[in-house]
Amino acid sequence: MTAASQILDRVLVLEMVRVTEAAAIAAAKLIGRGDEKAADAAAVEAMRAALNGLYMDGTVVIGEGERDEAPMLFIGEKVGSAIGKGPRIDIALDPLEGTTITAKAGPNALAVLAVAEEGNLLNAPDVYMDKIAVGPGYSKDIVNLDRTVTQNVTAVANEKGVQPSELIVCVLDRPRHEKLIAELRALGCGVMLIPDGDVAGVIATANPDTTVDIYMGTGGAPEGVLAAAALRCVGGQFKGRLLFRNDDERKRARKWGIEDLDKIYDLEELAKGDCIFAATGVTDGSLLDGVKTLRDGRVTTETIVMRASSGTVRRVKSEHGRGNIPG
Fold this sequence. Notes:
By secondary structure, the protein is an alpha+beta fold. The chain has ten helices and 14 strands.
């Protein structure tokens, strides 16, 4: 078990819940409105305001992009009410994981946040990452990105005591995954295609209720760090390798201190030490219920919050009175 952080003890778990609740409620007002940018902007503004109300010296290490791309919650931005004097906290966040999902009123949109002591979250550039993840209970390095799809699936099936055809593999529904999906189906695997939201897809491997055995495919590197922080709390394995499409992306990675561009990152290299992960549902999904507005104007939310040092997983269902709705 990871040693508990005295610094994180000062950033109360419930405060993280309030931060993701605020972002989710703000984004939920734009569910199904067809405007991805507006939904994302609302979540970003609400999350930033909530973070700035916390007593901490926070630094965004995974955020909305670099400063020239994002006016708020950009990589390197300082947040909190105690800059220079409060506990130093690194923050990885995605105020709205699933902007397209939200705009189209689809499932599994989340407001997501992970925090750790300074220096314990990989400062991943906004590039793609090749990912593979499984839930807890398997032998170390049961999967790896230096093996083929068939080798990884076979290894998990053998250890689980089933045929590959009995496994369910979660994959983002993207044209770039055409060959991956074809190989999985040739093995007889069930393939759960998701339109967006690969943080939820990775977490699904650790939730027996989803029936997902493996997550595979490429998605955003920042989301990879967030997913790794979640798995640190609940158990499981994750491997990630940054993918670069051009020299500009390679320069960006080196700017953030990444020298080995071919490195395969393990779970604890993406999210080290003690960490807290929180996610609030925006739309209904396999992990969480979405935001609901009741007839009397009250709003309900459901949040999952987890801590690596204790392995504690809490589900928090909240009712927000009309005069006390975050954001």
